Amino acid sequence: MLSAPSEASPAASAPSPFERLGGAPVFEAIAARFYDLMDTDPAYARLRAMHAADLARVRASLPRFLAGWAGGPRDWFEENPGRCMMSLHSAMPIDAETAGQWAEAMERAIADVAPQPSLIAASMSDTLARLARGMAR
Ligand code: HEM
Question: Which CATH superfamily is domain 21-133 in?
Fold first, then answer.
């Protein structure tokens, strides 16, 4: 038997972190700030050097990945079936320094965009920084 709407679990109807943080414009702003920092701040020079000269592809891809990861539209995942972020990066020579640069640039990007609610933004910032540091070998 189908559940009546009132019996639906709260989790099924709760807005996702993606929605609560402001949706696509906020995720686009975070990714844009992240790559601007990486591209211009010498503190991220080693991380920048690992990327292609033209950042257009990752600038388009990261906000769409983050959107799906945070419970929003899953276009990136549908276009990349079975593609896993950890295995995608496992072929890259990521060490503690470059992982730390990624983590710090992302923490700064989220702090600069300052989405609300700030507790959810802080939680996303911490999780992404830990994910990045976990990619170091
Ligand atoms: C730990 C440090 C990391 C380094 C050094 C790194 C480096 C890279 C590099 C070199 C690329 C290919 C870029 C190009 O072709 O120019 C890439 C792609 C990408 N990275 Fe990372 N990355 C890191 C962590 C992360 C994390 C934590 C995430 C997300 C949670 C992430 C998300 C992505 C995405 C979405 C792409 C594009 C994938 C695609 O659509 O093809 N990266 N990364």
Answer: Globins (1.10.490.10)
Domain boundaries, the chain: 21-133
pLDDT confidence tier of residue 3, bands split at 50, 70 and 90: very low
- Lining ligand 1 with CB less than 6 A are 47, 50-52, 57-58, 61-62, 65, 85, 89, 92, 94, 98-99, 102, 128, 131-132, 135
116 pLDDT exceeds 60? Answer: yes
Label each residue of the chain as H, E or C: CCCCHHHCCHHHHCCCHHHHCCCHHHHHHHHHHHHHHHHHCHHHHHHHHHCCCCCHHHHHHHHHHHHHHCCCCCHHHHHCCCCCHHHHHHCCCCCHHHHHHHHHHHHHHHHHHCCCCHHHHHHHHHHHHHHHHCCCC
